[in-house]
Amino acid sequence: MATALITGSARGIGAAIALRLAEDGFNIALNDISGDMFKDNSIEEEIRAKGVDVEKFICDVSDYSQVEETVKAVKARFGTIDVLVNNAGITRDGLMARMSEEQYDLVVAVNQKSVFNMSKFVGNVMMRQKSGRIINLASVAGVYGNPGQINYSATKAAIIGMTKTVAKELGSRGITCNAVAPGFIKTPMTDKLTDEQKNAMLGQIAMKRFGEVKDIAGVVSFLASEDAAYVTGQVIEISGGIMM
Ligand code: NAP
What CATH number does the domain containing 66 carry? Predict the structure, then answer.
């Protein structure tokens, strides 16, 4: 049975992707930065109820050595790593004039360097397998920019460049790499926005509704499927039609 590793999968979009890939028949390697995130075991139980194997791997994806050890542990536990979803991400918003160096550097480390760390070590496993799918979580903020998010939009734009580079470097080994760029999706990350910010965004969305985590999980499921075998280096926007 094939295995999918999803970073930052204790909640939000990552948890929805993990559940959807379990429905698709993948064994699931869950990851999050803190064991506390998995305290109630509910995601693990939901995944196991779908008839697949599941294990949690606690690791800070911005830490190169922790990622190297975690990838070794996932490979040892499941035998193969067939799908990597680079989902873990954070925001530390603020207008550029007031943003601290710490706010900037932390977001770059967690959102962007993590994609290098994971893609490098999982990519090495996939190269030996001569197959694999890497799916990165970008954002519309990386495509269009967003006031108050110079750090976040920098990382999400970088992820688009990294996606195309990895697609070109690993394509000849049967590995695809694509990105999804969500718009406004209802999760704990976006709960933090004010009503004013939410209403301003709603005005720009053609479908006049915010997205659900399942809207992202469905597209990731397609990119991980046999039907997407010849799709690589692409960025699929999942935004209900924002800023068209
Ligand atoms: P979320 O609800 O905040 O979940 C992110 C998860 O990643 C959390 O469980 C978080 O744990 C974990 N995480 C944070 N830092 C980590 C680290 N260093 N190592 C491992 N795990 C870590 O976020 P979400 O809304 O589901 O977003 C998921 C992805 O989609 C992110 O990359 C985000 O940028 C992208 N995205 C989201 C939206 C949206 O509207 N929600 C839009 C565009 C793109 P802690 O809580 O403990 O930090």
Answer: 3.40.50.720
Q: What is the pLDDT of residues 28-48, one digit of tens each?
A: 999 999 878 787 778 999 999
Is residue 202 lining ligand 1, measured as CB closer than 6 Å?
no
Helix (H) or strand (E) holding 86: strand 83-86
Going by pLDDT thresholds of 50, 70 and 90, the confidence category of residue 243 is confident
- Give domain status of residue 188, yes or no: no
Ligand 1 site, residue 8, Cβ cutoff 6 A:
yes
In a domain, 91, yes or no: yes
| Total-model pTM | 0.97
Q: Which two tokens stand for residue 161?
A: 């460049």
Number of domains in the chain: 1
Residue 12 placed within a domain: yes
Angstrom distance (rounded) from CA 199 to CA 236: 24
Helix or strand run (H / E) with residue 30: strand 27-32
Residue 104 falls in the annotated catalytic set = no
Pocket probe mutation, ligand 1, options 6, 33, 43, 192, max atoms within 8 Å of Cβ? 33
Residue 219 maps to a domain: yes
Distance 229 CA to ligand 1 centre (A): 27
